[in-house]
Specification:
Layout (H helix, E strand, L loop, with lengths): L2 E6 L7 H12 L5 H16 L6 H16 L7 H8 L8 H11 L2 E7 L3 H11 L5 E4 L2 H9 L20 H4 L2 E4 L9
Parallel strand pairs: 1-2, 1-4, 2-3
Helix pairs in contact: 1-2, 1-4, 2-3, 3-4
Amino acid sequence: MDRWATFDCYGTLIDWNAGIRAALARIWPNDDPEALLASYHEAEPGLEADGTRSYREVLTQGVVDVAAARELAVPDGAGASLPASVPSWPPFPEAPVSLGRLREDGWRLAILSNTDADYLDASLSSIGVPVDERVVGAARDARTARARGLMDRRPPRRNESPSREKPASRRDSLRWMLASERRGRT
């Protein structure tokens, strides 16, 4: 039986906070980068709530919402600069080495994200370790991943019972890893 390790990409493998912070600081170099990042993180959940926007659209509108929250002007073309920065967001230093070790130890790798496919491809390229599966998009592709068994080992959410897990044989062959400073560890 194949052993799978599945990872959320942004916040686990890619340092999205560093990427967002740097992009926002380039738009507004005279403002506090940490405050800009905090404003973005306040805006993002509302932008993603109904699930209708692509991540490119979320990032673009996020720039507008940060400007409104901080009473800043949006320079011409700045809305597109945050989404355009995604391919330059750095991987966490340990990500390539850790994924490489997992592959060497026989684990198959799946990377899941609610981002746009071209962003995920660029991020995976920057990590430099081949993966066996990549799943992009929020709900539609998450259902596909679950149907294929790639997300069966997701840890229970705070209000879920662990009894929903798959039988031990499947549970022992699949690991789901994600982390997020903003959203907490899951």
